[in-house]
TrEMBL record:
It is an enzyme of class 2 (transferase). Its EC number is 2.7.13.3. This is histidine kinase. PROSITE patterns: HIS_KIN (PS50109). Signal peptide: none annotated. Gene3D superfamilies: 1.10.287.130, Histidine kinase-like ATPase, C-terminal domain (3.30.565.10). It comes from Drouetiella hepatica Uher 2000/2452. Keywords: Kinase, Membrane, Phosphoprotein, Transferase, Transmembrane, Transmembrane helix, Two-component regulatory system. The lineage of its organism: Bacteria, Bacillati, Cyanobacteriota, Cyanophyceae, Oculatellales. InterPro entries: HATPase_C_sf (IPR036890), HATPase_dom (IPR003594), His_kinase_dom (IPR005467), HisK_dim/P_dom (IPR003661), HisK_dim/P_sf (IPR036097), Sig_transdc_His_kin-like_C (IPR004358). It comes from the Bacteria.
């Protein structure tokens, strides 16, 4: 005899078939109890077990059929098998049993619908999370890989500017300078995008040290002199109620805070008209240091104000310069990582104000100095 014919897998049943056999067995048991005892003894409540199994494991049609069958059998036992004269108490008790079965079936079916809906929502959420992770991994990898060719292109163009491959005319120098600036802008965008996704997934790690905001913003403004000159925008500084230069000490990451000032100043220069003015206001308070960058552009609409610091938000106002929608989002990430707050508002009579506030570093004085 071939013993392989008796493998367990060869006689395994479908789960629904197994459920049907269990329900049939329970029905037979309850029928024997019901029809072998007087009608006064109501065993119809035991049909609730098969009903629950049917509504939880079988299709809705089969569950309805099984429930109705149990209800009919329960009521049928009122006069069968002895064909007795019905009494109101027997009918009432069995009607209550039938009602209990029907309520149980309805509630069990509703619970099954809730569970299925919940499972679908969980599956959708898991799919969305997986898609978001894949998207972030893709963007992170793409932006990281884009840096190398951009850096190579910039260095090659600089070599051309330095006449490494032959004499370059003044007109060609201007063209090369324009291309270099364009590549540097693209590189900055790639780095910003990479930092944004890294900060969202891993968090922003700060290297905090005592830092003077005044020195940082002056250094950044110097690096943006060429951009401001190309747009004929003048950058000025003021120190609140004092006309003298102040020290605004905070416990912060100098490199990250430089990026904040660079984003805000670049944004202000780009949104100021030719011949306009960008004013940097630095104020020292007892518990916080505040910096505001004010431009003389078209201002911000009321609809845009709540969304300015959202990722990829570019706005739809009359402010003529359009960016990637990442600079202000990254700025917000940095300020909030320092425990500060950032905001934007309109300036009277025209223009916009972007400001932030950071906790004061208490061990360094914030009094005015005689340095102008």
């Amino acid at each position: 005899m071939n013993l392989k014919l008796f493998k367990p897998s060869s006689i395994a049943r479908d789960p629904r078939t197994s459920t049907l056999w269990i329900i049939l067995g329970l029905f037979v048991t309850v029928i024997i109890l019901e029809f072998s005892t007087p009608p006064e003894y109501v065993f119809g409540y035991l049909y609730i077990g098969p009903v629950l199994l049917a509504t939880s494991r079988l299709s809705r049609t089969n569950a309805v059929k099984i429930t109705l069958t149990a209800a009919v059998l329960t009521m049928l036992n009122s006069w069968l098998p002895e064909n007795r004269v019905l009494s109101s108490s027997i009918v009432a008790s069995r009607a209550i049993a039938v009602l209990a079965m029907l309520v149980t079936a309805v509630l069990s079916d509703r619970n099954r619908c809730y569970e299925e809906a919940l499972a679908q929502q969980q599956a959708k959420l898991q799919a969305q999370e997986k898609l978001a992770d894949m998207r972030e991994d893709f963007v992170s990898t793409l932006t990281h890989d884009l840096k190398t060719p951009l850096l190579g292109a910039i260095e090659t163009l600089k070599a051309f500017q330095q006449s490494a491959f032959g004499i370059v005319s003044l007109r060609q120098q201007k063209v090369l300078a324009t291309i270099v600036r364009s590549h540097q802008t693209s590189l900055q965008l790639v780095e910003t995008l990479l930092d944004v996704y890294r900060n969202d997934t891993e968090g922003l790690v700060l290297q905090n040290n005592p830092t003077d905001l005044v020195a940082l913003v002056e250094e950044v403004a110097t690096s943006l002199t060429e951009l401001a000159a190309s747009r004929r925008v003048h950058i000025s500084f003021s120190y609140g109620e004092s006309d003298f230069r102040r020290f605004l000490w905070v416990n912060g990451d100098a490199l990250q805070l430089q990026r904040v000032f660079a984003n805000l100043l670049t944004n202000a220069i780009n949104h100021s008209p030719r011949g306009g003015k960008v004013e940097v206001v630095l104020e020292s308070h007892a518990s916080s240091q505040m910096a505001k960058v004010m431009d003389s552009g078209a201002g911000i609409t009321e609809e845009e104000l709540p969304h300015l610091f959202e990722r990829f938000y570019q706005g739809h106002s009359d402010r003529h310069a359009k960016g990637s929608g990442l600079g202000l989002y990254l700025t917000r990430q940095i300020i909030e990582a320092h425990g500060g707050t950032i905001w934007a508002e309109n300036r009277s009579p025209n223009g916009a104000i972007f400001g932030f506030r950071l906790p004061t570093f208490p061990h360094y004085p914030s009094t005015p100095s005689i340095e102008s």
